[in-house]
């Protein structure tokens, strides 16, 4: 009688579990693979802040509630946004 190799059985269980969990990660409500917390009615407030102040010192940038979006190194500015709706 043949014996089942333990390592092969564990690999099979791991592969099956991975497939089942990945299928359960999406739902019928998901559209275009966008997070369910995202909707088209969101409103954002944007601000552009310089990296340095008038004396050339590096500024502490970002007000409370704002999140960093990107920067422009040529203009020495950073772009921040805050969700308002």
Structure, described:
The chain has 85 residues and is of the alpha+beta class. The chain contains 1 helix and 3 strands; from the N terminus they run αβββ. It has a 3-stranded antiparallel β-sheet, with no helix packed on it. A hairpin with a 4-residue loop joins strand 2 (67-72) and strand 3. The radius of gyration is 25 Å and the shape is elongated. The protein starts with 5 loop residues before the first helix and ends with a strand.
N- to C-terminal distance: 67 Å
Overall average residue pLDDT? 77
C-alpha Rg (nearest Å): 25 Å
Topology as a string of helices (H) and strands (E) = HEEE
Strand order of the largest sheet: 1-3-2
Give the amount of beta strand, in percent: 15-25%
Anisotropy-based shape? elongated
Largest sheet: 3 strands, antiparallel
The tally of strands reads 3
Note poorly predicted spans. none
Helix coverage percent: 10-25%
- Count the DSSP helices: 1
Query: Which structural class best describes the helix and strand composition?
Result: alpha+beta
SSE topology sketch:
Elements: H1 6-23, E1 44-50, E2 67-72, E3 77-83
Antiparallel strand pairs: 1-3, 2-3
Keywords:
3-stranded antiparallel beta sheet; 1 helix; elongated; 3 strands; about 80 residues; alpha+beta; single chain
Structure at a glance:
The chain has about 80 residues and is of the alpha+beta class. The protein contains 1 helix and 3 strands, in the order H-E-E-E. Strand 2 and strand 3 form a beta hairpin.
